[in-house]
Amino acid sequence: MSAARAAMLPRPYRITRVRRELRDVFTWELEPADGGPPLAYAPGQFNMLYLHGVGEVPISISGDPAGATLVHTIRAVGAVTDVMRKLGKGDEIGVRGPFGVGWPVAEAEGSDLLIVAGGLGLAPLRPAIHHILAQRARYGSVAIYYGARTPADLLYRKELERWRGRFDLFVEATVDAADTSWAGRVGVVPKLIDPHQHRFDPDHSVALICGPEVMMRFTVAALQNLGVPDARLFVSMERNMHCAVGLCGHCQLGPEFICKDGPVFSFERIAPVFHAREL
Amino acid sequence: MEPLKPLDELLLEHPFFADMAEGPRKFIAGCGRNEVFHAGAYLFREGEPADRFFLIRHGSVAVELHVPGREPLVVDTLQGGDIAGWSWLVPPHRWANDARATTLVRAISLDGKCLRGKCEEDHSVGYEVFKRFIPVIAGRLSAVRLQLMDVYGDPGQRR
Predict the structure, then answer these.
(1) All domains of chain A, ordered by start, with CATH?
(2) Is the distance from CB of A154 to CB of A120 less than 8 angstroms?
(3) Which of 3.10.580.10, 1.20.1640.10, 1.10.1790.10, 2.60.120.10 would CATH assign to domain B7-147?
């Protein structure tokens, strides 16, 4: 079978665990139902998850790339994901992938790292965080800045608390609004990036940014103001991906196919279309 | 115990005044004093006269909106290196929010009336103060706009 044909064929996977993360967000752990080897992927890549008779959706991979289990964190926001939310342990789905270009974790070795996530944007960054922590000595200072809507909307909260307990990692979280029982920060994510709180060398830093596009826009501006060059800013773009191999054109953004050329782009490359209002 | 530094040296340590020339900094320092707030204490409360502002040196402050019949809503938090309060600049000089220390807070407060007087007396000092406040105010306005967008909310139910 040709590679192009194989890329269009879903492989059966079985759900081995379901974890409710938030009100409308759940995480699946999956293993191949065909007994074959686990999926090898790079942090930041995505899969097309297929439900027979319902449809197919692009979902970022959110597990540890060194682990044997395939992990996806999914928000129930549409016809396909609403049905997916009702599935449980033992149910089977189809998986195509992995697709796309991931985070530049190898190229970033030797640099300070600024990992900036908003809302569900922490999920596509989680494999990169696992990879970086496994290779911690290869990087300079590492900071994770995370923003969510309210304290109840913090994704992977226990893991965030565990990361925050490490001496070799700076972790700060903020929410848009809270009541007085919340002891953490309130405000927008870009405000967390403060060299007085956590030092980094802008010329030798790499920023990995994922979240709603508006949040990424403000974060990019904040990092530019602090002197981080555009070639060192990386954003994960989200568009309506269908074929995942750059054939159908659904996810085309200017000259770029998000599914094939991204979803991760350096800001230097994506800047010409990043601020485009209609494309 | 650490000996107390002169106030103009403490101002120099704060990012807000870090690049201000010695002359105007010493002139302004005459309006300042050291303050300590224990966790739970209020730096200021909505509606009270805004007679000063704070350079937070250490600790964390929650900016709150009081809503009758329910818990206050925390809309912002401020840290060491931040400024708390600009109502002293804007008539009628009354606080628009509550600001509560969530940890032990060490701050320098600057008397608003004294500082307004010095700004009137020497407009170059006024310019130095205002050119530092405008980016703070612009940054907070921009942040509030982003918060209002509710970017993390359910895409189908954005307000």
Answers:
(1) 3-99 (2.40.30.10), 112-274 (3.40.50.80)
(2) no
(3) 2.60.120.10
pLDDT tens digit string along B21-73? 988 898 888 999 999 999 999 999 999 999 999 999 999 999 999 888 888 89
Residue among B66, B70, B73, B77 with most chain A CBs within 10 A, to mutate: B77
- H-helix or E-strand containing A250? none
DSSP state of A10: P
The interface pTM score, or ipTM, of the predicted complex is: 0.81
- Measured between beta carbons, the chain B residues lying within 8 angstroms of A185 are 60, 77, 79
User: Is B151 close to A212, i.e. CB distance below 8 A?
Assistant: yes
Closest chain B C-alpha to A216 CA, distance in angstroms:
11
Q: For residue A121, which amino acid is it? A: G
pTM: 0.88
- Shortest distance between the Cα of A135 and any Cα of chain B, in A, equals 31
∠ CA A40-A41-A47, rounded to 5°: 110
Question: Is the Cβ–Cβ distance between A155 and A175 less than 8 Å?
Answer: no
Contacts of B126 (CB under 8 A, 6+ apart): B118, B119, B120
Reported as a single tens digit per residue, the pLDDT across A71-101 is 999 999 989 999 999 999 999 999 998 999 9
Tell me the C-alpha distance between A230 and A236, whole Å. 14
